[in-house]
Amino acid sequence: MVQTARYQPSGGPIEVHAVSGFMQPAVYTLHLWTKGEDRPEDLGGGVLLGGDVNVSALPLPTSRYAGRILQAVVTVSLLNGKRYAPAIRLLQGTREIGADGVEKTTTRASIGVQFLFLLEEE
Amino acid sequence: MRAHWLLATVTVAAVLVAPATGAQDPAAPPDDSAAVKAREARQVADATPIYELRADFTVPEGPAFKLVELDESAILRPTSVRELAMSVADFTGEDGNISLPSAIGLEAAPWLLAQGRDLTRKTYKDRQLLYRFRVSVAAKLDPDTRQPTALAIGFRETFLDDADVRLDDTLEQRVIANLLQQHKVYAAAATSTNPFPQLEAGADTFEPSHDIPLSPDQQAEVDRLDRELVQAIKQRQEETWNKRRLELALGFSGQSNDESGGGLRSQAGQVWIAFGQPLGAHAQWLLGGRFSSTRDTTGDIRTGAAASTRLYVGTQDYKGFVEVQAGYEQDQQYTPWFLNSGGEVRVTNSVWAQLSSGVEQAAETRRGRLTTRLSLRTALPRAQ
Predict the structure, then answer these.
(1) How far apart are CA A42 and CA B42, in angstroms?
(2) pLDDT at B344 over 80
(3) Mind telling me how many Å the CA of A42 is from chain B's nearest CA?
(4) Most exposed residue of A24, A81, A94, B173, measured as fewest CB within 10 angstroms of its CB?
(5) Cβ of residue B181 closer than 8 Å to a chain A Cβ
(6) Are residues B34 and B147 in the same domain?
């Protein structure tokens, strides 16, 4: 489901907090979609290890996110059992403006998951 | 004939712990032929991954099980912590023939089980003793009535484990190297379509799945990389099965006076200490000690101690061992000793079979007697 994340245009940068539960190693990337475009703008990403939260600040000026979709793609390795639980939180300052996550099982060795956030100004 | 029994028993055990298939998968591809290809590719992948991936490097053996199994060896083999492990043993009856197992045991790491999703590496590292602490229970069954005639509870702590998968930087780096390649495939698939048209077509009903649909080619590539990942982990298992470990354990058992399992009373308490040290790439040297207090048939308590050393030579999947042990028994003039050798085979990634044969001197008036033991160890499917 697309989560709607409402942020304050003058409220400072938006941060993405990514985590992979059960200490499952994971890799994630962020992609920013604009209506009518064929390709998203890549915003970087990171590696998730040891159940720790990885924080990355969105690089564009906050005003440029209005009406666009932020897509987070997470690929998880099932190194520590068959359960996986990647999650993404969007924060502006200390305020959570969006969050999504899954907790599932798979018999695969790895699995890809995506999260979509529609960004809107408050 | 006996070999057939052994093979059948091992096969049944392997089937019992085989992974289920058909759990969460990416969404089906758009057309029928593509769907068939994707399904076939998925079936290939589902046939191996998760249990192959589990980086469980040595045979689980809990102290409670060790007590009810009445194992002559003073070595409680040190192993990396796992959430759950199970043992069944004593497939050999008094006449030496294969029989139903008469000892079963279960070992769990309660804090590791309870923490689950939110456990971090830092927390685990800071509180290693807590998360590596294990509790085990075991029962000895009467071969005729199948009622428990002895019950035991045990506790185990790992003070040193150089093969702990949760703290293995090398393994993590290899996994990430593979994941980066897999991620390219998933990211390409996920970003192949702009989600806006779907969102605008039905803002209230647009509920894209968290799963990422893959084309047959992408699925095949991911499956290939999954197999490479499995191989990388197997390679790491081979590199670390004999690493340093130090463990302390204790256990208590009670024994029933009748075949129905009633009248249980305390029978023995034991403490084990074990240290494992690698010898080159293909051998491990174990040094173990056991201190015991046992109630004999007259109701008197007798104490004893034994020291043992065991040498494993081989690989992660196949290894042989030799063992020498000497001990002390209270009020006995003789020195109990034990010579043992055997082999261990990893039947599946979660099942090990161990066969050993030795000579034991356990009473002053008797000559050494032959002992033979066949046991199976398995890790239960993980809750996490």
Answers:
(1) 29
(2) yes
(3) 10
(4) A94
(5) no
(6) no
